[in-house]
Amino acid sequence: GQLHDLAVKAGLEFFGTALGESHTSDSAYISLGTDSSEFGQLTPENGQKWDSTEPSRGQFSYTSGDIVPGIAAANGQILRCHTLTWHSQLPNWVSSGGFSYSDLQSIIETHIANVVGHYAGACHHWDVVNEAADDSGNWRSSVFYDTMGTDFLAISFNAAKAADPSAKLYLNDYNLEYNGAKTDRVFEAAQIIQAAGAPIDGVGFQGHLIVGSTPSRSSLATALRRFTALGLEVAYTEVDIRHSSLPPSDSALVTQGNDFASVVGSCLDVDGCVGVTVWGVTDKYSWIPDTFPGQGAALLYDDNLAKKPAWTSVSSVLAAA
Ligand code: G3I
């Protein structure tokens, strides 16, 4: 069976993938990425980010942002939309700052009203705020936090709700899986949003993990349950599990499969974990070697689009549920 179909049988809403807007001329890639029994959900890898959708103030562009939503609609795939208030991939006119509180509030509200409005009705989820905590578990310094403190959180969620009442609204971050200081800070962020009366539905665990250092299935479930205890749903939104040296040995490929099974298994174990998205179809196009030179091979399909041992591990854990 294929992964999305198995995931649905196991009680999840979806198993999906990010799709890169710049690889659409690779027909083998697109044919696998649009197989809705394998990947029943798509996330645009880059096209909906601020630098792409509002490159200058008040000038909105959806050329790249529309690519993956169009593919998902044509193939009956669920769409997770990504992302709105994020410190990275901002155009210079935003990241350079110098705004008053009220000017920046208006900039955020205008951006979200336009972008979420453009996709209204099409997005099952929106990653409204991305990566609000830094790697040490402090609030991340950004134009948003530095200008507004934590007020940008509720402001962003309220604006998204106003523009698309039907999308489920997510706070998304990485390294939540380790249940440490960063998880504590994102837990606090979720509570701040709720205490402000703003409409948060879920927390996304990105799941950018490392082969051999991935927490156990039960530890992962414990971290997920901290958030479902707040009445929120959770999802794994950007999973990849990278080898820290390449090429991987046969035993490293087995460990990678076990780590993927821990991630997917933990979602199956937690009521309120709705789905798993991998951050790419194939190792061929992963972001990892650009950011972590010498590392990678983090996905379920290799450079030749052949299934890796991790594919079989994911398939087995879903089939066993
Ligand atoms: O848009 C330019 C293009 O004009 C130029 O020709 C090309 C040349 O390299 O670069 C293009 O921009 C790149 C962009 O991806 C689109 O390909 C950027 O340099 C590159 O930095 C960017 O990387 C993306 C990264 O986010 C940026 O932060 C990765 O593809 C994307 O996978 C990655 O995804 C993030 C999630 O959104 C949030 N969580 C972490 C995750 C991994 O970093």
TrEMBL record:
Lineage: Eukaryota, Fungi, Dikarya, Ascomycota, Pezizomycotina
Protein location: Secreted
Name of the protein in question: Beta-xylanase
Top-level taxon in the UniProt lineage: Eukaryota
Residue span(s) of domain GH10: 1-317
Sequence similarity: Belongs to the glycosyl hydrolase 10 (cellulase F) family.
Any coiled-coil regions, as ranges: none
Full-protein interval shown: 19 to 339 of 809
